[in-house]
From TrEMBL:
Keywords in alphabetical order: DNA-binding, Transcription, Transcription regulation
Organism of origin: Paracoccus onchidii
Gene3D superfamilies noted in UniProt: 3.30.70.920, Winged helix-like DNA-binding domain superfamily/Winged helix DNA-binding domain (1.10.10.10)
InterPro entries (alphabetical): AsnC-type_HTH_dom, Dimeric_a/b-barrel, Tscrpt_reg_AsnC-like, Tscrpt_reg_AsnC/Lrp_C, WH-like_DNA-bd_sf, WH_DNA-bd_sf
Any one Pfam family match given in the protein's UniProt record, by short name: AsnC_trans_reg
Annotated signal peptide: none
Superkingdom, taxonomy of origin: Bacteria
Name this polypeptide is given: Lrp/AsnC family transcriptional regulator
HTH asnC-type domain boundaries: 4-65
């Protein structure tokens, strides 16, 4: 990993597991004193290595009991269509992730909803109503066996 020392990696691993650690607790667990630990974290934030610190909310506790991966194929690949779809993705809170992919589809979305009917409504009444989607393939998540946001450092 370029420009990251062992101490930086230790700090990043700790923060990925629990970003609520105080500077003192973080420093102790990383084997550093508080000031150098704080300076290293500040540098990694300033350099964009740490993009943001967030709280992960349980979907089921938020009343979102349906999750699906939806592959999307657009009618065409004109700049106007791509920009319109990108704008849609950016403004829809139900879409948690969007990736441009290879293969027979153009995009893969991770979408949440209160229930399967809510997901169907989102796809049929919101996404297909754009008029630029040729096809979708939906895979409902039955059970999530692993979920992490931590990168392997």
């Amino acid at each position: 990993m370029p420009d990251l020392e062992d101490a930086d990696i230790r700090l990043l691993r700790l923060l990925q597991a629990d970003s609520t650690l105080s500077t003192q607790a973080l420093a102790e667990r990383a084997g550093l004193s508080a000031s150098p630990a704080w300076r290293r974290v500040r540098r990694m934030i300033d350099e964009g290595i740490i993009e943001k610190q967030v709280s992960l909310v349980s979907p089921t506790h938020a009343g979102l009991h349906a999750m699906a991966y939806v592959q999307v194929s657009l009618l065409d690949h004109r700049e106007e269509s791509l920009a319109r779809f990108d704008s849609f993705v950016q403004t829809e809170d139900q879409i948690l992730e969007c990736a441009t992919i290879t293969g027979t589809s153009d995009y893969q979305l991770k979408i949440v909803a209160r229930d399967p009917e809510g997901l169907e409504h989102f796809i049929m009444r919101r996404m297909l109503a754009l008029g630029i989607v040729r096809a979708t393939v939906t895979n409902f998540v039955l059970r999530q066996t692993k979920f992490t946001t931590a990168l392997p450092l």
